[in-house]
UniProtKB/TrEMBL annotation:
Signal peptide extent: none
Enzyme class (EC, first level): ligase
Reaction(s) catalysed (UniProt annotation): (6S)-5-formyl-5,6,7,8-tetrahydrofolate + ATP = (6R)-5,10-methenyltetrahydrofolate + ADP + phosphate
Keyword annotations: ATP-binding, Magnesium, Metal-binding, Nucleotide-binding
Entry keyword Membrane: no
Family (UniProt): Belongs to the 5-formyltetrahydrofolate cyclo-ligase family.
PANTHER family: 5-FORMYLTETRAHYDROFOLATE CYCLO-LIGASE (PTHR23407:SF1), ATPASE INHIBITOR/5-FORMYLTETRAHYDROFOLATE CYCLO-LIGASE (PTHR23407)
Name this polypeptide is given: 5-formyltetrahydrofolate cyclo-ligase
Cofactor(s) the protein requires to work: Mg(2+)
Residue ranges of the region described as Disordered: 1-22
EC number, as in UniProt: 6.3.3.2
Biased composition range(s): Basic and acidic residues: 1-10
Length: 195
């Protein structure tokens, strides 16, 4: 079994190798699954992310949410609590900036902060996932910390991973702090491990 860093590097290479047309097609296939998901249809407020580094684009899903009158939130690095995320409301005209990782995020404005208990679903980026729902992120632990209450007590936003099909691996060596996902959506499949 490959170690976590080797799996991370391999999965990143696979998604970065996708052509722009493959990325565009994958994003539209994801949107079709996303729109039909019962939890998405029922949710008023959803947290998504802006893709980078070959991640599956969420832009068509975000656009659809806006058209449906759903509130979209994006993650922002917490300015005080290192390693934690805040979620800010995101609209087409939201002022954006790049965080220290080069990821675009809404400019911090306390009026736009959406508390976790107001978010129905949180769509998480990931580098790789396995057949048991284990998720491998970029290594910062931001989403594991954000989802710890859901993992321990089933409280807070319901998490769903988003990934390209090529990011599924046989097995990820899990760590104690990892939060397994109940669901992952890929362009061609809906992986479900918990009802």
């Amino acid at each position: 079994m490959l170690d976590r860093q080797s799996l991370r590097e391999m999965a990143r290479r696979h998604r970065q190798a996708l052509s722009p047309s493959q990325q565009q097609q994958a994003a539209m296939q994801l949107k079709a699954r996303f729109m039909q998901h019962p939890k998405v249809q029922d949710a008023d407020t959803l947290a998504l992310y802006l893709a980078m580094d070959g991640e599956l684009s969420t832009q068509p899903c975000i656009q659809w949410c806006w058209e449906m009158g759903k509130q979209v939130c994006l993650p922002v690095l917490h300015p005080v609590h290192a390693g934690h995320l805040l979620f800010l409301a995101y609209e087409p005209d939201t002022p954006m900036q790049h965080n220290r990782f080069g990821i675009p995020e809404p400019r911090l404005d306390s009026r736009l902060v959406v508390p976790l208990d107001k978010i129905a679903l949180i769509f998480t980026p990931l580098v790789a996932f396995d057949r048991q729902g284990n998720r491998l992120g970029m290594g910062g632990g931001f989403y594991d910390r954000t989802l710890s209450q859901w993992h321990q007590h089933q409280q807070g936003p319901y998490p769903i991973g988003l990934a390209h099909d090529c990011q599924r691996v046989e097995q990820i060596p899990a760590e104690a702090w990892d939060v397994p996902l109940p669901e992952v959506l890929t362009p061609s499949h809906h992986w479900l491990w918990q009802p």
